């Protein structure tokens, strides 16, 4: 039982990090029909900018704020310069965002250096609690709570605010939203910047979790996020949370019980979902 | 004499490589119901989409309230006071009736609340299913919601695409009554295949064939012209 609780905590923490990355990706795809392979680059930029600010200022909160701001700025630049010219053309989107992903990755090496950077867990969140035979690592609990708070905030924004209603409506029928007098391009930009900020935040939270960051990290996590988006259903925010937790838990349990399958488990889940429910587990109904 | 609210002059529209509209012209006069008629694929729906800017014109001009709107963005055109009810109704299926209306309401003023009250009285079913998802409404209820959504803002002109399509006769009656009621407050451009319905509520007509306007006039003229009806609508 102790082991199971530990594996669940590990799985939930990983799942929450993937969720932060995937939630932006799913909204961007759902609303804008844009496949953004550069999303992982924003993850790694958030990690580096946040970690260096954290090291410089000594404050983890400053690191989080800088990571979010980095995500917003890079999101703005990416949408305006990279995405806008290729709206409506999936092949061009894949090529240009993959290319931009590599540019972001190499820029990390130019700006921050090519070496792996070690990251410490902030003092307040370091260490663990011992409950009987169970050891609970504080930082993992922090990530789980933080992830649920972000989910709650996003859920509130999407369901209780006017802009959230517009985003949900836009995912279903963006032409109709425009015909109701709403500038959908402005909404696209807000969603893209929010998604980018979430990716950067995920990168910053991941850094102390893994203990080290490197430039190629973005691509590894972006693939995981894409798998989650496909499993949850393109455009479904709740689907992303469910799929991220599923992938996180499956990875955690498989790594312990069947280690040689742990890397393949996400792919296996995705293939099974695609066979039986190609639109994903949670899908957005059309009007 | 009634003033012209909307004017299309030699409008041409391309969709990809296809030249869909090849010279559409008509005027919608204030307070009237102008009906666009023609066979399937004649270009009626594209004409509405061109007016609202979803398939922008590649030639000619669209003028609304003496303002050239040919090259304007869809949201700018809508904000000038043009409401659009598409052929598939464009309901946001996951949103409730209330949320569908909220997305459409640009400002929550006393005037817009009054308009909302007005449409809810016109379509009491919407009040009944206020918290129900739009995707779960019947075809008729979706039509009512789509029309309410377009009407709830300060729309000087409503573009309604085939409101009777796929509806039971009793529901068509209701929709028709609602259009007659809405006409008291706004101008309407209607695309309609159902000639009986069109002839009952239309004041003027525009016949479109192969993307071109072939005849404009008062609805009365068309009702009396069996040859024209037979040639372009296959009836009479």
Automatic annotation (TrEMBL), chain A:
It is found in: Cell membrane. Keywords: Amino-acid transport, Cell membrane, Membrane, Transmembrane, Transmembrane helix, Transport. GO terms for molecular function: transmembrane transporter activity. GO terms for cellular component: plasma membrane. Coiled coil: none annotated. It is a multi-pass membrane protein. GO terms for biological process: amino acid transport. The chain crosses the membrane at residues 7-34, 54-74, 86-104, 139-158, 187-209, 221-250, 257-276. Belongs to the binding-protein-dependent transport system permease family. LivHM subfamily. This is ABC transporter permease. It comes from Ureibacillus manganicus DSM 26584.
